[in-house]
Amino acid sequence: MDSGFQDSRPRALSVSELNHQARHLLEASFMQVWVEGELSGFSRPSSGHWYFSLKDRKCQIRCAMFRGFNQRVKEIPKEGEQVRIRGKVTLYENRGDFQIIVEHVEPAGLGALQQAYEELKRKLQMEGLFDAARKKPLPSTPRHMGVVTSPTGAAIHDILTVLARRCPAIPVTLYPTAVQGQAATADIVRAIDRAARHGLADVLIIGRGGGSLEDLWCFNEEAVARAIAACPLPTVSAVGHEVDVTIADFVADLRAPTPSAAAEKISPDQQDWLRQLKEREHRLAGAASRALKRMGTQLAHLSARLRDPRRELMEKAQRMDDLDLRLGKAMRQRMEREKVRAEHLGQRLRMQSPAKRLDDNRRSVSQLSERLTRLARQSVVQRQERLEHLAQTLNVVSPLATLGRGYAIVQQENGDIVRQASELAPGDRITARVASGHVEANVTAVNSGNQ
Length: 451
Description:
Blueprint: H1 15-29, E1 33-43, E2 50-55, E3 60-65, H2 67-70, E4 82-92, E5 97-107, H3 112-127, E6 145-149, H4 154-166, E7 172-176, H5 184-198, E8 203-208, H6 222-230, E9 235-239, H7 247-251, E10 254-255, H8 259-266, H9 270-305, H10 309-351, H11 354-397, H12 399-404, E11 409-411, E12 429-433, E13 438-442
Parallel strand pairs: 3-5, 6-7, 6-8, 8-9, 9-10
Antiparallel strand pairs: 1-2, 1-4, 2-3, 4-5, 11-12, 12-13
Helix pairs in contact: 4-8, 5-6
């Protein structure tokens, strides 16, 4: 029954409508947030999703991290850990719970990924993998370019676009690989090894387009860094955008801020080549023109100097006749001189005949023999006279001459000559040498006076 009463109260929202509007308002107000707090109430149901709360000293907020995101986390967080999360603020409409849908979680402070990045960077730097001395020079003009990247990503498209503009003649070989996700690390290592073994490329670009730190993380893996360092080809790292810096950038021989920049850096510009070619063509044409002009001038000068060959032959014949006359005259003069010289030598030879010289030498030897005999006789006479004189002189001073006058030489038993009577004593045995022989005696008395 209609009582005629109309309800003037405002329209009431249902609970579902209110929660739905609140969810949209939250999601529109908070696009993406980073939140730090203590992890609490962590659970992992069989669905693979994670549920937990973040709290500080005053408040807490519920969080959900679905399996597609938590599979990227290297280490499962523990109860009570201080963590940082990145996610979207929303409302779970069924329960009206205010919550965050988490896309990334890391330890608070430096962050797990950043911490792992810094630790690996220090390790490889200490090993010398970043040293400039070990980096290989890039070819000035690549003959063949290799690219390690995703076949469907923007990186290969950007590289080919740049090469088509700058130098389309350079062939490119793509070594396809995943550049994101858990399998990407091993895939990139295999692609680098294939490029090295293939042996076609003389420079290798390794990279991908931009993305989050997690998306680019495979280029911060140690296996990728060591594969780049061991690659015999010169390598260019082109990962992400200009602000993105990965471990691969430090190990590679050249770091490019983007894949497009990598293609710019290592490819020559065909427009520059065309400009240089035109400039060199112009210089070559100028040089050729100047050379032709110079040769024309030389040809004209040589043509003016060219003489009639018959005249040249006549002059040569006259010159030969003149030389023939001079040669005949010189030969006759030479023969006259040699004839005079031969006569002179014959005369000298006759003067120096061996028979004449033998006669002269015989006369000289005879004279020298006579002179030698005479000198020898004179020398013998002189030496005999000198010997007799010396003998007389020796006889005068000889002790034997003294003994001949009645004197004697007295010697003691030990052979000493007795000069004083006091040198003897009665009973001494003495020897007295006289002119002929000697006398042995015993001393019976000694008188040391003058009598």
